[in-house]
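Notes to self after the call with IL:
- keep both proteins in one doc
- input above output, always
- annotate only the second one for now

Protein 1:
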Amino acid sequence: MWVLYSPVFGYMFTDRSYATHWICQTVIAGFICWKSQRQTDSRVVSECRYEMSSLSAFFVQIKFDDVHFYENCGGGSFGSVYRARWISQDKEVAVKKLLKIESEAEILSVLSHRNIIQFYGAILEAPNYGIVTEYAGGGSLYDYLSSAESEEMDLGQVMTWAMEIAKGMHYLHSEAPVKVIHRDLKSRNVVVTADKVLKICDFGASRFHSHTTHMSLVGTFPWMAPEVIQSLPVSETCDTYSYGVVLWEMLTREIPFKGLEGLQVAWLVVEKSERLTIPSSCPASFAELMRKCWVTEPKERPMFKHILITLESMSNDSKLPEQCNSFLHNKAEWSCEIEATLERLKKLERDLSSKEQELKERERRLKMWERKLIEQSNTPLFLPVVAQISAESFYESKTEESNSSEMTCQITSSSNGEVEGMSLQAMMKGFGDMFALDMGGPVLHSGMQVNMQAKQNSSKSSSVREGRKINMALGMSNFNWSDDSD
């Protein structure tokens, strides 16, 4: 038993005919478009029909007890995927279990293309939410490329699959009722049917383009465009970047950035502009297409319309089959190039980690020195370097036509040993913390003299120069220090 669910009007249409489903969808959407007076252009009408999430989700509601679950066949974005049987329809299906139904069912409900996974309906019974789609018996493209069967791939298969993925993505960007940006295109999200047709699936990270162009961090780093990694505003060409990685996977049958952690890949792609290694013997037309897909500037990447034109042109190249087949079947000759790049990137990452540790150690030591300086600056002014500081040590001088007076003090050290700059600095710290003295190495002689000067503004001017010894108490503020030991 299944029913047609429409969140627009809050009730369900019971019918077994898919024709009724589409009739209801068309009538309701037509009414919405009429109300909004957007009937001037068929494209505008389509956008109107699906622009708001509350007006676009028309899908079959499948009862939870109408589904018999088999094994877990993998994980998608935000949920696990199970092989199952839709009992009432006697149909093998894939069910993606979710914590809640969000945009994925809404997006799938408006899509229909040979290279997009077919959507059957959704389970809306809490807490057993799920999305029900067709089941692809061949597994994911990622698994296929890791199997022994992939070793027999030739140009024909690579070209066919490259075209199928590009057609599916072109539909999402340009031909669907509303533009959809996938944002998580990768070989794990492309499935292989029993008759070897590729279908794009897992729209958990996807968004209607009209809803927002500023995306949160989603996807898997080796396939992610730089702007997606940085959570910058995105366009459909972020999918172009990911497509280039999937094409690289089909040609090399290697894991992109194998052995590197996700955040390491993110840093290399964004900060170092690193890209996957294209072996030197890779056919030039494929190499050029991948490089165009990986351009840093999103606007400079090709749209899927142009990718399809490029692939069509390549299929007419009489020399390409021999070049491509030779490349595919002689992996031992060029795989070392990929390995060498991976080793270089790993070394770069190790060097970075080492430098990071050095910087952390340097920061730790600087903080320790700073703490010791503070501790020493707070110690009393009774240090070996201090010999005699008395009232008679101070002199006053006045200069003609000067609005200031200054006071000097000469300190003579009686120490016969080493006097460390740190101790002297701690002593001087007590005089108002006005000057940081860098003594360099230890002072190796006794009798060191340090001149202190205290300047004080005065509103009076004197007309004679005079100097005399005065008696005054020792103050602890407004002193400028200079080292005259040299």
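Protein 2 (the one to annotate):
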Amino acid sequence: MTDYTPQEAEQIRTEHINKTIIPLVNFAFENYPSIDSVLMLLAQFWCDEAIDAVHRYLVYFSADTPDLETLLENLESTEPLDPKLEKFLDESDDFTFRILDEYEKKYGKYLFLNWVENGVAIAGFAAYCEECDSDTSWKSWAPYAIFQRKENNEVEIKIVGEMRRPWLNGVKGGIFDDW
């Protein structure tokens, strides 16, 4: 099993952002005017069927939610996560599924089928994840990208993720090699 090159790993990240995340963020911005930014978090941990799966989580922000900087500071600190932020993160997952359902009803396709946690998600994103063993804490998650609403619902993308484990950039560690 040959690993991907760094350029191929970058292409995996870019294609995932462009084909899956941007359409979902655009849909959220168009249908929920109060949302002004979305944060993409990544984590690699044991979950059900694999020890190396890379997981993705989207967090939605508006004027009446905790601000992005506060959340990022809490995730980076060694202190326990503020309980209000933990509740906010838990609720964001429900919102993602609601948006996905609405998207599927409108367009007849389900966007997240393009994320294979045990496949190329490992090659593309594992290098940006913290070393951890399970999903027991939000502290396991690392920020990767911020999507902000601009004029006319255009999306500005800021890649904020740090390559924390460069030796994993492009590694084929999963059981599936395609989206």
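Annotation: Residues 6-168 form one domain. The chain has four helices and four strands.
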